[in-house]
Amino acid sequence: MTMNGEVLAFILYFVVVLGIGIFFFFRSRGGGEKEYFLGGRSMGPWVTAMSAQASDMSAWLLMGLPGSILAFGLGQVWIGIGLVLGTAANWIFVARRLRRFSKAANDSITLPQYFTNRFMSNNRGLQVISAIIFLVFFTVYVASGFVAGTKVFVTVFPSLDVQWAMILFAAIILLYTFLGGFKAVCWTDFFQGMLMLVALLAVPIVLVCGGQTFDSAALSTVYTGADGTAYAFTPNLFSASWQEVVSGLVWGLGYFGMPHILVRFMSIKKSSMIKKSATIAIIWVILSLGAAISLAILGRIILGGELLPSGAQDTVFIVFARRLFPSFIAGLLMSAIIAASMSTADSQLLVASSSFTSDIYKPLIRKKASDKELLWVGRLVVLIVAVVAYFIASSKAQGAQAIMDLVENAWAGFGSAFGPVVILSVFWKRITYKGAVAGVVGGAVVDVLWLAFLSSPTGIYELLPGFVAGLLCCIVGSLLDHKPSAEVLAVYERATSASDSEEEASEE
């Protein structure tokens, strides 16, 4: 009976997301490259905000973070704090300016394209290098989403073979992304983001309001896992080592170089809507992370003795959902984990596709390709990336774990390579194309070298040295180069001089 309710909820969830994809397929027929990859720059503040945050927060928010805090204590919260600060800084300082700059830079629809147009360069080197990096890392990202989503599928459908569960999960994401493009992804992300928030809030609220008594003494109990790991709960944020604090906070820097988040800023209908979007996004992140932390603490008190010996702490949300709610509601709540995986994977599929189509295929392979041709090439790349990601994700268990580890490394790679260049491109008039190339290459190289040789001995997350190196390389490279041309300076002036009302009037 329980399974029937959960299955019905899952079916309802999938009908909704596929329905959104089909709706936008028929609605956007006849639209071209810009419509498919950027939604025609027509997204409203609510959809933009929720899509950005849902595509950012994967199943880590509902499984990884609560499980980690439940097992080891509040020292694990520093990553969450770093992400809140990074989210706020990105929305407040970068979002509006990037929207304006991407519009002023020949209406750029991808981040690599923006880099080329921002500096009025005929050299496509940076654009192509950036697109290749996107394709590689996003394929891995998508694979990790497939792994996380499949875990939930198997939990709800225990009789379903793991491979078939992954195929089904991947097929659903592929179908609505393939059909509906950016608008379908954004609207499904909006729906999924709301579901994630409601699910995260529901469990701790019901626990607290249900009249249950809590024995806080359980927080001081040290549990031992089957592998001998001692799970002692750290009750204080500041008991973590300085390396953990710094590395956790540094996660926030990654936001400035995340293509699937930055493209949301570029897609919003009007620059004036950014303020509202920022408010929505920041509130969502604070509420979601606060709920995840509360869930973890309550989980430690109530379920610590049950979950930790078997190493199943990442299932705390699933266990609570099943015990506190009727089967149908529990199924809807567990759909939030699927939503978290899907909302990240669909965005990454689309950004990888747009990077190949707009940054490699059109400028290098088919310069005179029609909008219709580009649209179908983009859809074909979505299919190819999904298939490759499936084969990576369906590898051995060890390989799957390696993928999950690579996500952390890919976050650092994107942040180090692109974050400094994005920030300087919208705030510094003196930045040049050669400086941008130096920043991307320098940040990426230092990030990789630090990961290979210094990450373990120092305990410092490679994003910090990589980001600093990228920033310094970009500044020094620009200062050693000739000053920007009058045409490049004109792009800067167009993006920074116009008021919101003037900008919006010019677009009508």
Tag the structure with descriptive keywords.
single chain; mainly alpha; two-stranded antiparallel ribbon
Report on this structure.
The protein has 508 residues and is mainly alpha-helical. It has a domain at 397-508. It is 76% helix and 1% strand. A hairpin with a 5-residue loop joins strand 1 and strand 2 (230-231). Helix 7 (125-156) crosses helix 15 (397-427). It starts with a helix and ends with a helix.
Task: Please describe the topology of this protein.
Elements: H1 2-27, H2 33-38, H3 45-56, H4 64-72, H5 78-104, H6 111-118, H7 125-156, H8 162-209, E1 223-224, E2 230-231, H9 242-250, H10 259-267, H11 274-307, H12 316-324, H13 327-365, H14 371-393, H15 397-427, H16 433-453, H17 455-458, H18 463-480, H19 486-497, H20 500-507
Antiparallel strand pairs: 1-2
Note the total helix count: 20
Decide which structural class fits the backbone. Answer: mainly alpha
Quote the distance from N terminus to C terminus.
56 Å
Strand order within the widest beta sheet: 1-2
Q: Main sheet, how many strands, which sense, barrel? A: 2 strands, antiparallel
Order of helices and strands: HHHHHHHHEEHHHHHHHHHHHH
Shape: globular
| Rounded mean pLDDT score | 85
